[in-house]
Description:
- By secondary structure, this protein is of the alpha/beta class.
- It has three domains: 6-33 and 203-274, no CATH class; 50-199; 299-381, Winged helix-like DNA-binding domain superfamily/Winged helix DNA-binding domain (Arc Repressor Mutant, subunit A, Orthogonal Bundle).
- It has helices at residues 34-46, 55-62, 67-77, 84-89, 96-104, 111-115, 123-135, 140-151, 166-176, 179-223, 225-232, 290-298, 302-313, 318-325, 329-341, 361-375, 379-382; strands spanning 6-13, 26-30, 246-252, 261-265, 268-274, 345-350, 354-359.
- The strands form two sheets. It has a five-stranded mixed sheet with strand order 1-2-3-5-4, sandwiched between helices. The protein has a two-stranded antiparallel ribbon with strand order 6-7.
- Strand 4 (261-265) and strand 5 (268-274) form a beta hairpin.
- It is globular and about 55 Å long.
Amino acid sequence: MDYNTDTRTPLSINFEVAKMATKQPIKVFWDQGTAYDFLTSLYVLHFPDEFGLRGAWAAGVRSRLPNEAREFLEKIVGNFNPPLNWVYSLTAPKNAASVLVSLSQIPAEDRLAVLRLCPFESKRGSELLNEILQHGQWEPEMVTEFLHLWRTQNSDTLVVPGPASTKRVEKIFEIYADPLRFGRNYLDSLQAYYDAFFSEEEKRISAKLEKALVHARQMVEKKGAATFLQSISEHLSVDSLQDGGQVVMAPSYWCSRGVLHSDLEQDQHLILFAARPEEESLVPGEIVPEELLLRLKAMTDPTRMRILRYLLQEQLTPAELARRLRLRAPTVTHHLHLLKSAGMVHFVKKGKNEHLYFAKMESIKNTYTLLKDFLEQDVSIVEGFDLFDNDLL
């Protein structure tokens, strides 16, 4: 299958979102390649809780790497978003080998400048990092400004997980002050990760990505692009996409519910959509799907159950929920984050800075279906043994 982005027959669509003042056509393009999963899988392995992945298994995969590579990737992946816009710029076929070859062709001291790594998407933030890249040093006020930018990012921007702090900013600045060291270690560490894990993982997921792309095209043709985009964008407010712009969509086995996205240009956005069926697990050979466990975990707390009940009846802001539940706002925000990660609540914008949350009844009902299907599976087929085998008794 040709991995080239389809730029010949873009789909012109209108987002049917009430918040949009006008309905200018938005062109949709498609992209594909395991290169996206090469880098996003690293992201997921370092932030397993954000994706419902078992932390112990993720740590086990990371432990396969040599100590130097593991420690370096923890510092880089733990503080920067994956360079999705750079992956998009690669020529086909976009696979792990093309990432490694393309990086090797860039002088080591220039790799950081080309990748433009940042913990959040911000023009001013990138300018500050570029100043450090050029001069190899920074002023104290730059730390303060960068920290403020980080803490004030809106929810539609992809921000690396974890709290922003002065210590974290200084660590990022130290990386940018020594681009040659980064360039050498980054390529070596990615090669180590490929050898230790992703070379086999790439074989496992390649055909699934192709199948997901075909299915996505069929869904767009059958139900319309607006419906499809809404369904894959549970972590991205669809009405944040600019009127009359372009959306590039690429399947990712390791991504879930449109949580990873990037601005390519002013009017062009890249969204990775989930290519992994809900009944499948990220962990090879795992029988219980993470999606089911994530949703069940989200519902095992009495406060979150009350939140779901409130949000099924009406849309509410976190502040309104906090008053009704008589809880502190940060506590409510934490519960909403877990429910949103499980795909059980979503939000729409209210004004400039507020969000109205609502429960997704379809996801709640689907949780029961996933549980029912799992419990009713033929154990002898799924787990590969005979229930009545005397050798097991």
